[in-house]
Request: fold
Amino acid sequence: MAEKESVTLVVFSGELDKALAAFNIAIGAASAGLEVSMFFTFWGLNIIKRNEGGIKSKGMMRRMLNFMNRGGSKRIHLSKFHMLGMGTWMMKRLMKDVNSPPLDELIAMAKEMGVKFIACTTSMGIMGISKEAFIPEVDSFAGVATYLAGAREGRVNLFI
Amino acid sequence: MKADATLDCIGLYCPMPIAHTSNKLKELEKGQVLEILADDEGIKEDMPAWCKTTGNELLSVEEEGEQYRIYVRKS
Reply:
C-alpha cells in the first residue's frame, strides 16, 4: 500500500444501536490498516461520556439537559424498542448470547487499534458539557475544520 | 494446507474475526500462513475483501459444513 488511506466518521447520533454500527465500522477499517477518526458531535457526545459520576454544568437549563441527557456507553438506549429499558436490556442480553462485545469493549478495542476520538467543542459549549465529562480515551476537542481536514484526505466519509 | 499459526474465531461475529486476524497477522513474519476458523457466514465475503484492502494474499476459503477454514499468507 502506498499512502495510508483514511476513514472519517461523524457520529451525530447518541443511540446504542447507531453507536454499535459506528464502532463496528471503525474497528473493521482499523483492522484493514486504514487510519480512522471519529468526530463525535451533538447527541453523539453521549457515547463518549464517562459512565461514573455526575455531569456538572452551569445554569438551570443546562443542568436539566445534562440530567435528562446523561449519556455514557453503558446508559444509552436503542433508537427503537427501548421500552423503558426492557428492550435495550434484552438487546444487550442477545448480544452477550452470541459473544458480541458490549459498546464499552468496542470503544476500548477501537482505541487500542489507533482510532482517533474527537469531541465537538461547539456542541459541548451549547450543552454546557466540560472535558471532565468524557472518557480519557478522547484524543482531542475540536471543530468542523479539523473534521474537514481529515475528511478531505479520506475516501470513506460517513455521517451516523 | 500447512499453516504457521491458527486463529479460532468460532462464535464471533463481524468485525471480530477480521480484527483478530489483523492482530494475529502482526505476530507472523512475511510469507507465513495463518489459518482462520470461523462460522459467521459473512466471513467468506469479508476475508477476501479484507485481503484486497490490506494486500495480504488469500490462499483459500474452505467450507466445512457450517464452518469456514481460511488460509491467508502475510505479504
